Amino acid sequence: MCAPESTANGRDDPASLEFFESRIRPVLLEHCHECHAADEVNGGLRVDSGPALLAGGDSGPAVAPGKPDESLLLAALRHDGFEMPPSGRLPDAVVADFAAWIEAGAVDPRSDQAALPRAAGIDIEAGRAHWAFQPIARPLTPEVADNAWPHNEIDAFVLAALEAAGHQPAPDAQRLIWLRRVTFDLTGLPPTPEAMDAFLADSSSEAEATVVDRLLASPQFGERIARHWLDIARFAESSGGGRSMVFQEAWRYRDYVIEAFNADMPFDQFLTEQIAGDLLPAAGPEEEARQLTATGYLVLGAINYEEQDKRHLEMDVVDEQLETLGRGLLGMTLGCARCHDHKFDPIPTDDYYALAGILRSTKTLKHSNVSSWTERPLPMPPGLAAEEVAVPHAMAAKDAETVVDCEICIRGDVHNKGRAVPRGVLQVATLGPAPTMPAAASGRRELAAWLTDPEHPLTSRVFVNRLWQQFFGRGLVATPDNFGTTAAPPSHPALLDHLARRLTDGGWSTKNVVRAIALSHTYRQACRRSPPLEEDPDNALLAGLHRRRLDAESLRDAMLSVAGTLVSDLGGPGISDPKVLAKAGSETPSEYTFVFTDTRRSIYTPAFRNRRLELFEVFDAANPNAVVGRRPVSTVAPQALYLLNSPFVMEQASAAATRLLAEPLGDPAAGVDRAFRQTLGRGPTAREHELVLAAVAGSGPDAIAAWATVYQSLFGCIDFRTLE
Amino acid sequence: MPLLTTTGLPLSLSRRGALASAACGFGSLAFSALASRGSGLSPLPSAHHQPRAKRVIFLFMAGGVSQVDSFDHKPLLERRDGELLDFADARTRARGEKGTQARVMKSLWPFRPRGETGKQASELFPAMATHVDDLCFLHGMHTEGVAHGPATIFLHTGATSQVRPSMGSWVSYGLGTENENLPGFVSLLPSSGNGGPRNYSSAFLPAVHQGTAIGRAGMPAADATIGFLSNPQRSLAEQRQQFDLLQSLNREQVAARLEPDSQLEAVIASYELAWRMQQVAPDVLDLSRESPETLALYGIGDKATDSYGRECLMARRLAEAGVRYIQVNYTDNSNNPAWDQHTNMPKHADHARAVDRPIAGLLTDLKRRGLLEDTLVWWGGEFGRNPYAQDNGTGRDHDPDGFTVWLAGGGVKSGFSHGATDEFGHVAVEGRTHMHDLHATVLHLLGLDHKRLTYRHAGRDFRLTDVAGRVISEIIA
Asked: What is the residue-averaged pLDDT of chain B?
């Protein structure tokens, strides 16, 4: 018989023990163990051990011996702040037993120390070992056996990896296949038959460079690359959530992005303006307007402005911004750290609330029964301002009146506040000294400066990886929004760093990186997987290109382009109906009665969160409610139904037929050839020629209908929907 | 390296029987595209445990039906009608203010005992009330979100603000479809308000689990169909001609490649499926071959009940055809939908008239066809309504703290009531059932463990019930 342990809470008192065994333990077992014991530890709290109960969970110690009113366990049983058990309040007598038990010292014979929660905290220094937090290297261009193959340094990295694995690159794609590929990738449109002729006629060694430079200089380049950025920026023109309200001014942000890419605005400036444009000095009203408009990035998230708990709403907005910023710019899922230290990545809760403090000190929200977002007047050029014109507004952020450090919301609960965390940035991604946060400003400028430091281990890597993915269908890091420890490491780490350095050393020029990729030999390969699947099932080594699906916008724009119905106006608002633009009201016209009619490029199609163009819905366009770095690729029957039966496709096919028949073609065979070149960027095979010719033969007066059938079949066929 | 089937799909991913080369259904096509990209998609071809239900029919009463006017009988309201009392009003509390004084308002419809169980039900739903012995009432419901938007999205996705998959998408992901020619999850005449498509969206789950909308709120159900299911501009012969040309080109283009590519073959298969769907789906949605007796049972033909009656009958036909999750919406496109009687409680009667007979007819029909055995029917809104008048008027504000839903069939006790609100019918106090708990219970009845039905996205595992949810074992038969 062991001597009874003598402890502060009197474990040797038989009456206390009896009380625990008869009144307390059975209740814990019956009502609490299901969610708060070894098998499941909700809220970090275990009640199946004495020490664990004293230590408590995320909200703090559960029991304060001798002090019932300071014991969270009792508060929960009393439904004061917490409500436990969730199935309903226990009888008053039971609650009184717990009060008495705690009052008497909370005697508890269960001494299992092992049940104590593990020491909290994340080892930041150990976390730095992860490749993505390592400093960006300056890798030397590797030596390769086949010296003739590389066109530029990118190719040396790719070839070195292939040679190391005992593989060879795929042969070059046919020239017209490359032309279709590069034209879609740089402009989102098909090559015209005229561009095909010009390219085939150019036998110089500069033929490809001529094409790439022409495409990079075209305004369609900005429209194309902006589409990718808008996916990352979860761009939309309504608030989504419950009562979806139209963002009347969101188009200004969209145009800002297009213009920035067309002007090849340095990427560091592009990010800085979006995060802190309102805080930057401006040389004139035009620059000031542009910088204000850029901060729309922070404002245009999917928000439930109807939320009645305004404190909750404020944190939802911050959470949405951090999720967008985290996944979009850093490749980090910060959201996990809202409720607890990140389980996989070295991101403690403190880092989340350090960043949250910067955004809590920023105003993007206006409160009302149904709240709304902030808009700011745009400065007018001198002279114009005096005239009687409506002052334009943009969705824009500003610093809040008061700068605050954000209090930790325990388990994400805005009404369960912990200590305040000083504003700051992600510790693990900070290689130099941490930025100092100003006392009188939100800290967004400092945040932007930290992000755009050329040595920042994530910003440039994440962005060049996104660019790479747009050309190859798969990033060097396969998960573009997640560079954390759960992600597969990069297939070509040195190439990733080479591209990151190419970006930052080249004045953060996007076009510079894009041009190198587009002119690489790697990108010129055919879509063929020469190594057997077993050795490289994902074709990560790039022995040949991935066969890709035309994205929804390119599919639509290509049909419009072939049909000759594409209106190529740049920029400007896409919604004009005042009923749709009206903010108030019980109905939401944008989400119901809106009729999509225009035939402008898809980037200008009104982007309502709860009502999208059906073609976008069906063909996997990015969900505008979240950061989408990689769109899903599906092959589902509704796509086939759309291409077979939608009035849009039939109208475009008919317009294309009318256009073709208006041309001086000579004979149907020439028509077949032209239709294939327009749609597929190549002439027909003998069999295809035969099939189509048979379909239009003898159609006579019904020629338009017959040719419309042909165009519709071409719009639906595999080679139209696929990018080789 | 997994073994490959003839279609090039890994064998481990092709366990769902229909995933053969010719039968690339709604389920398998997106699936193959994703699987071959190594997305980490893990199929759940079978349930976690023995299911009690194979499918769900969810009768969504958008806007919030008043519990104290329908199935939650509170005699005290009668006695204290008109008195000004303090209530911990949910909206006021959410705004961080203290409770509010409000005028007690008794039920506008008298209650009396019904059926063999003597369950109290009001005159609001006289036809449904004849089925109380088949129903399982949950009177202790509570949920998140005081306004329609957050609460509606929470009901459907388990989150008020973040973008999460809808419940039907989780069920489709967990169990797949029983009919490869039809989607696994459909939503009949869904609203575009209060989250709109988010309420039937697959969010980060593969697109194939997206709910398929049949019609839209605001249109008569007689006009509702699947998008682009038919081509009124062309005769069948012309359609066939275009289809044949298209598929000939496709086959030529696949053959022109040196190596087989299962994804290109999947495109061809998707056209074949679309062609079959054009034949199959209209039949499933076609009510014209139902007997006059059946049509009458659902109230089809009567102005008040025609639209919801058609929805309910389509739901039965979709259930028979193998659709897993069928949401039957009673809603509109307003942000203050159907049942939202803030200022005019008597209007509840109009909505009750529209749904009462159709729902009773559905229960009768399911039961006599033996379908109620393995079909779980769920009736309810995103929250309930307060037992006191709003702004001293004739309406009731939202009550997310205590309300009633009922379940029927599919493994739940019949003629049973679980949980209770306080004596006014305001706040759930007994057998409290959070919406997460209801989600967990519905999944459980389908054979799915809500804690194990997870999907890895953005670096972590997500589930419908987040970190909460308790199976309400008390109601399981």
From this structure: 87
Measured between beta carbons, the chain A residues lying within 8 angstroms of B422 are none
| Residue B227, pLDDT score | 87
Q: For A611-620, B93-102, B300-309, which range has the lowest pLDDT when averaged over its residues? A: B93-102
What ipTM does the predicted assembly reach? Answer: 0.84
Give the up-direction half-sphere exposure of residue B31: CA atoms within 13 A in the CB hemisphere: 29
Is the Cβ pair A634, B195 closer than 8 Å? Answer: no
**β-pairing verdict for B135-142 and B416-418:** parallel
Q: Is A303's Cβ below 8 Å from some Cβ in B?
A: yes
Amino acid at B338: A
Of residues B170 and A79, the one with the higher pLDDT is: B170
Residues of B in contact with A327 (CB under 8 A): 458
Tokens 């990069």 sit at which residue? A490
**Which A residues in the span 492-531 are in contact with B, Cβ-Cβ below 8 Å?**
528-529
Separation of alpha carbons A248 and B426, rounded Å = 40
Among A261-265, A480-484, A692-696, B342-346, name the most confident range: A261-265
- CA–CA dist B286, B297 (Å, integer): 17
Q: What is the pTM of this model?
A: 0.79
Residue-wise pLDDT tens digits, A533-581: 567 777 889 999 989 999 999 999 999 999 999 999 999 998 888 777 7
Q: How far A44 CA sits from the closest chain B CA (Å)?
A: 12
Closest residue of B to A584, CA-based?
B335
For B309-339, the pLDDT digits (tens) are 999 999 999 999 999 999 999 998 877 889 9
Q: Does A478 touch chain B (CB under 8 A)?
A: yes
Residue B33: partners with Cβ closer than 8 Å, 6 or more residues away:
A633, A634, A635, B263, B266
Which residue of chain B has the CA closest to A43? B467
* Helix boundaries (H) for A277-383: 285-294, 296-299, 310-325, 349-360
**Model confidence band, residue B40 (pLDDT cutoffs 50, 70, 90):** very low
User: Does A161 lie at the interface with B, CB-CB under 8 angstroms?
Assistant: no
* pLDDT tops 80 at residue A601: yes
pLDDT of the residue at B44: 42
Cβ separation A641–B278 shorter than 8 A = yes
Per-residue HEC secondary structure of B64-87 comes to: CCCCCCCCCCCHHHHHCCCCEEEE
Domains of chain B in start order, with CATH, are 54-230+292-475 (3.40.720.10)
Structure tokens at A222: 């900005």
Domain ranges of chain A: 14-115, 266-455, 635-724
All residues of chain B having their beta carbon less than 8 Å from the beta carbon of residue A682 are: none
Tell me if B239 sits within 8 A of B207, measured CB to CB: no
Residue type, A354: A
